[in-house]
Amino acid sequence: MIETMNKPATLIKPGQTIGILGGGQLGRMVILEGRKLGFHFITLDPAADCPGSQVADQHIAAPYDDPVAAQRLANAADMIVYEFENIDPTVVSALERQVHVPQGSRLLEITRHRLLEKQALTAAGIPVAPYVAVVTEADLHRGLTELGLPAVLKTTTGGYDGKGQWMLKTEQDVAALPKELFMQEQPLILEKFISFHKECSVVVARSIHGEVKAFPPSVNLHRHHILHMTVTPAPLAEGMSDKAVRLAERVAASLEVVGLVAVEMFALESGELLVNELAPRPHNSGHYTFDACLTSQFEQFVRAVIGLPLGPTELTSPSVMVNILGEHGEAFNQAYGTLPGNVKVHWYGKKEAKKGRKMGHVTVVDDLESAIAWIEASQIWPPLTEREKKVIYDK
Ligand code: AMP
C-alpha cells in the first residue's frame, strides 16, 4: 500500500534549482537522480571541470569560502545542500540566513569534527570506541595510560581515507609522532584500537518531516584506508543487521539529521556494535543502492531534503560494489568492452587518474559467490586476501 503522508507540501517544486556545495562524484550522482525528479542544479566547487559541474545546469568555480561566489550561489538557488563535510560551517550558516539549507550547519559542525561527533554520539547513548581528547603531549601520555596500546591518534578535522591518522602500536610509534601535532589549535583525539571482526555501515535518510528510513546494512573492506568493496546484504551474524539498522536510525533521530547520514560501525566478535564515523551525505558504501535497491541513496537524499515521502529501500538483488581507483584504470579500460550486463558501471568523469583517487565504481548485481568469482577473474583489482575472504564469507 502506498502511504499518503498528511504533511505540508514539499519545500521546492520541479523546475526550481538546488545549489550544491561541492562538485565531486557524490554531487554528480545526486544531480543525475535529482534531474529525474525535475530539478535544476548549480554547483560550487574550486575545480572548473569537476564531476558535478559536468552534469549541472550551472557551475561556479571558486573556493568555498569566497563570499562573492557564495552570494552568487545563494542568488541562483532555491535551496542549498552540501555533498561533503570539509566545508566551513560558518559559510553554511551565512547561506542559511538567505536560502533554505535543509541539512543545516549544526550537522556539519558536528560531523566534520571527530571530537564533537564522538561527544554528540556519547550524549545520545550511542556506543563508540573509548577515546580521550588530546591537546598537549602530557594529555597524550595520560590518554595512553588510560586506554593502553595499541591506540589510534586522529586529527579532529580534515582527515579522510586514513589521512590525519597515526596508528600507535609501540612506545617507539609514540616517540616518532611529529612534535608539530601538539602545536595546533585543534585538539586531537586518541582512540582505543578496536580489534573488530568486521566493518559495516548503514545509510539512513531522515526527511524534513522527520520520516526515517534506512538502507540495508553492508559489510565493507578497506585497502590502505580507502573503501575497496561493499557487500550487501551484509554477511553478519544473526540479528546483527537489524541491530545495525536500529542503531543507525537512533543516530539519525538523535542528531535530527535532515538528508542522509552514513553510519560506519565496527562489528565485534561479541556481537557489540561501535559507531566509528558519520558522514552527513551520500556515502561510498551506499553506492550499491543505485543498482540494487528500489530507491538509490541519491534519490532518497533529494526526497529527504525537499520533503517528498521517502522511497522504499528494499534490496532488489544482492550485490558487490568495487571502487575503481586511479591505479585500476588501465586494467578496467582493457576489460571495458567485455563487461557483462550485470556489472553496472559508474564513471565520475575525472580527467586525471592518480593513485588512490576514486575514478568510478562498479556494482556487480549478482549473488555473492558469482559476483566475487567475476571480480577475481576480471583481474582489475589485486585478488582478495585470505583475511578479506573470511570477512565477506564468514558470518
Ligand atoms: P576513520 O577515518 O575514523 O573512518 O578510520 C579509517 C579506518 O581506520 C577505519 O575504517 C578502520 O579500519 C581504522 N580505524 C579507525 N579507528 C580505529 C580504531 N579505533 N580501532 C581500529 N581501527 C580503527
From TrEMBL:
Residues 118-306 form the ATP-grasp domain. The keyword Flavoprotein does not apply. GO terms for molecular function: 5-(carboxyamino)imidazole ribonucleotide synthase activity. Keywords: ATP-binding, Ligase, Nucleotide-binding, Purine biosynthesis. It comes from the Bacteria. Pathway: Purine metabolism; IMP biosynthesis via de novo pathway; 5-amino-1-(5-phospho-D-ribosyl)imidazole-4-carboxylate from 5-amino-1-(5-phospho-D-ribosyl)imidazole (N5-CAIR route): step 1/2. It catalyses: 5-amino-1-(5-phospho-beta-D-ribosyl)imidazole + hydrogencarbonate + ATP = 5-carboxyamino-1-(5-phospho-D-ribosyl)imidazole + ADP + phosphate + 2 H(+). Pfam families: ATP-grasp (PF02222), PurK_C (PF17769), RS_preATP-grasp-like (PF22660). ATP binds at residues 114, 154, 159-165, 191-194, 199, 222, 276-277. The keyword Repressor does not apply. Its EC number is 6.3.4.18. Catalyzes the ATP-dependent conversion of 5-aminoimidazole ribonucleotide (AIR) and HCO(3)(-) to N5-carboxyaminoimidazole ribonucleotide (N5-CAIR). Catalyzes the ATP-dependent conversion of 5-aminoimidazole ribonucleotide (AIR) and HCO(3)- to N5-carboxyaminoimidazole ribonucleotide (N5-CAIR). NCBIfam families: PRK06019.1-1 (NF004675), PRK06019.1-2 (NF004676), PRK06019.1-5 (NF004679), purK (TIGR01161). Belongs to the PurK/PurT family. Homodimer. This is N5-carboxyaminoimidazole ribonucleotide synthase. It comes from Laceyella putida.
